[in-house]
Amino acid sequence: MPMPLKPALPHGHRARGGLVALALCLGASTGAWAREAPPAPAKGTPPAAAALYAQAMATLKGCQMGEHERKDCAEPAYAQLAQAAQAGHVEAQFAFGSRQFSHRFQQAAPDPKSAADRAAYVTALTWLASAAHAGHARAKTYLPPDVMQVLLTGKAAHLLSGKAADLEPPFGDLPVLWLLEAAKAAKAAKGAQPATAQPVPAQPTPAQPEAGR
């Protein structure tokens, strides 16, 4: 199954109005990023992390099928992106977080009762928030302002009822608690530097659909 390079219309009965416009907006920015040459890694990025990122992106370029990435050859590259992200490579944080988010989001609306959904979304949102904290321009605007405000501040007071439904559609199905959990994780990692330049254990690769979903 090809893996999408950009957010697509979530499948399932809970899709909301306005979703097409948002998907096109996110897809346009992500698609443009996918075609751009990656910038130089930030100062202080461990050489091993930069090498992992470069190798992953080269692999993903060879995995492309139109606007998708072939799952059979992309998964090892996703693991490398996760390693580089955890080692502090900001471009890898955005690349992995945006891919994980778009892959999960295009499958179906978030299910608050699904442990797999929670793990996948919190992981993706944590890396997007980490990249945004580090000044990554695309990470700062990848998601709607209300969502990014929660991720970057760890506060959701602007969501009056405290419910996900207060978020800009179609993010009304995304639990605010997941956003707060990701914000807390990103804040804890903010400014942290890896002890060595050696690769670190990978985060989970983009989650696959659960049976029956």
Task: Kindly describe this structure.
The chain is mainly α. The chain has one domain (19-31, 47-189). The chain contains eight helices and three strands, in the order βααββαααααα. The protein has helices at residues 19-35, 47-63, 71-86, 90-107, 115-133, 137-141, 145-153, 176-189, and strands spanning 2-4, 64-65, 68-70. Strands 1-3-2 form a three-stranded antiparallel sheet. The radius of gyration is 16 Å and the shape is globular.
Low-confidence parts: 4-43, 193-213
Secondary-structure content class: mainly alpha
Number of strands: 3
Mean pLDDT: 73
- How far is the N terminus from the C terminus? 16 Å
Task: Based on the model shown, name its key terms.
globular, mainly alpha, 3-stranded antiparallel β-sheet, 54% helix, disordered C terminus, 213 residues, 8 helices
Sequence-ordered SSE layout with sheet pairings:
Layout: E1 2-4, H1 19-35, H2 47-63, E2 64-65, E3 68-70, H3 71-86, H4 90-107, H5 115-133, H6 137-141, H7 145-153, H8 176-189
Antiparallel strand pairs: 1-3, 2-3
Helix pairs in contact: 2-3, 3-4, 4-5, 5-8, 7-8
Describe, in short, the structure shown.
By secondary structure, the protein is mostly helical. It contains 8 helices and 3 strands, in the order E-H-H-E-E-H-H-H-H-H-H. It has one domain.
